[in-house]
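Predict structure. Input: Site-specific DNA recombinase, 193 residues.
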Amino acid sequence: MIIGYARTSTIDQSAGFEAQLKELEGVKCEKIFREQVSSIAVRVQLEAALEVVRQGDVLVVTKLDRLARSVGDLMRIIQALERKEAELRVLNLGMDTSTPTGKLMLTVLGGIAQFEREMMLERQREGVDRAKAEGKYKGRKPTPDAIRQEVVRLAGERMTKTAIAGQLNIGEATVYRILAAASQQRILSLERG
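Output follows.
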């Protein structure tokens, strides 16, 4: 079976998401797992795809950065596929892991992608530091208390983070940040009490 996986970091990237789905359908993926979540978040659909893969199957992604956030992450995914005797194909690279050369090239390119990401983050940090020094950086606007309380309330009612973000017209990352802070606050309260 040919299994596809599509991912974008945010729900705002609908054009890129649709393009991935179209490409995966074009290579005859029989089942496509899709999610719009940051690569650093828990990728439930990726884990589901890795669970579904069986011997002889091929997991297909359009680009390497849609699949893995680092070389270590890429190696974990490749090893999970190898244990199941399945393969990985990356469409924009024309590469698959069915050959030793494909495995080597994928590892090398994964290292380059990780290096590029780290360089980009370093430049971003330098830019923020420079803007702060010049008094131009204001940082993220604080989330009003009423919104924070509503996020916690809706999460308590078992509403999904995506649904909460949509209902309150805020970013999904903001929902995650608010819930993480609320959880940390509860832990500190329990430790003190």
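The chain is about 55% helix and 10% strand.
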